[in-house]
Amino acid sequence: MTPKQAIEKAAAFIKRIAYDKKLHYAAGLLIAGVLTNFMPVLFAVGIAILVGVAKEVYDRATKKGTPELADFLWTTAGALTWLLLYFVVEGIVWAWIAWLT
């Protein structure tokens, strides 16, 4: 598979994801990212996941939305993506600092 084909395949996959699921993913990523400025990253990710749970409980209790496991999983995926990015970037920064000293 060429790089162009891989990009086209990834773009087609992303296009098939429901808009609602993309919003849940973005919310998990954003909540964890913002909260990391105020607390340790693991707490921030945990809170983002709890917000996902709370949203689905709210949907069920109020009947204003449709509670779905998939929504919770997409929110969690966004928060866990933040965790992965955080540690990858942190590792790169520490390696760069070590290389400079």
**Uncertain spans, ≥5 residues at pLDDT below 50?**
none
The overall pLDDT, averaged over residues, is 94
Helix-residue proportion: over 70%
| End-to-end Cα distance | 41 Å
Biggest sheet architecture: none
The helix/strand series, from N terminus to C terminus, equals HHHH
How many strands? 0
* Percent of residues in β-strands: under 5%
Tally of individual helices? 4
Query: What sort of overall outline do the alpha carbons produce when their principal axes are compared?
Result: flat
Q: What structural class do you assign from the helix and strand content?
A: mainly alpha
Rounded to the nearest angstrom, the radius of gyration is: 17 Å
Give an account of the 3D structure:
- The structure is a single chain.
- With 101 residues, this protein is mainly α.
- It has four helices and no strands.
- Helix 2 packs across helix 3, helix 2 crosses helix 4 and helix 3 runs antiparallel to helix 4.
- It is flat and about 60 Å long.
